[in-house]
Amino acid sequence: MALQQGAASDPQWARLQVDMNCRVRRGAWYRVADLTPAEVRLDVNREQIPLPRTSLKIVSAPPQHWTIVARPRDARSLPAQWGDKYAVCPGCRNRMELKGAPHTMRCARCECTFRVGWEEWFIGVG
């Protein structure tokens, strides 16, 4: 594999920018383990998942706000009562129901509070 761009002390993060099923959560940021011109390997639960580089948005630091995600047409494990959208925690990638239009949300898993990124929806919604 090629070396990751940037110094070893400069981690990079990536998330899907296309709607596809590929073992990563839509709207969630993952640490880049390796980067080539064609492929990115993401650290996902201590496993490296290879994905086409063109399917990802890569940044030097992930935003610290909840990402709003439109319910995927093929969603299997999302409660029906969540409706047509949900939020993904920037801290731990937990998914949570959106109730109303909150400015901030506290994550039920990591218990951190973050601003809701209403201005940055995950693909095709908004």
Describe the largest sheet.
5 strands, antiparallel
Number of domain modules? 2
**Approximate strand percentage:** 35-45%
Which shape, going by the Cα principal axes?
globular
- Count of DSSP helices? 0
What is the N-to-C succession of helices and strands?
Answer: EEEEEEEEEE
Please identify the structural class as seen in this structure. mainly beta
Total number of β-strand segments?
10
Spatial separation of the terminal alpha carbons: 38 Å
Q: Supply Rg.
A: 15 Å
Strand order in the largest sheet: 4-3-2-1-5
Oligomeric nature of the chains: single chain
Fraction of residues in H or I helices: under 10%
What is the arithmetic mean of pLDDT? 88
Uncertain parts: 1-7
Description:
The chain is mainly β and 126 residues long. It has 2 domains: 13-59; 65-122, no CATH class. Helices cover 0% and strands 41% of the residues. It is built from no helices and 10 strands. The chain has strands at residues 13-16, 30-35, 39-44, 47-52, 56-59, 65-70, 85-88, 95-97, 104-106, 113-122. The strands form 2 sheets. It has a 5-stranded antiparallel sheet, with no helix packed on it. The chain has a 5-stranded mixed sheet with strand order 8-7-6-10-9, with no helix packed on it. Strand 9 (104-106) and strand 10 form a beta hairpin. 23% of the residues are buried.
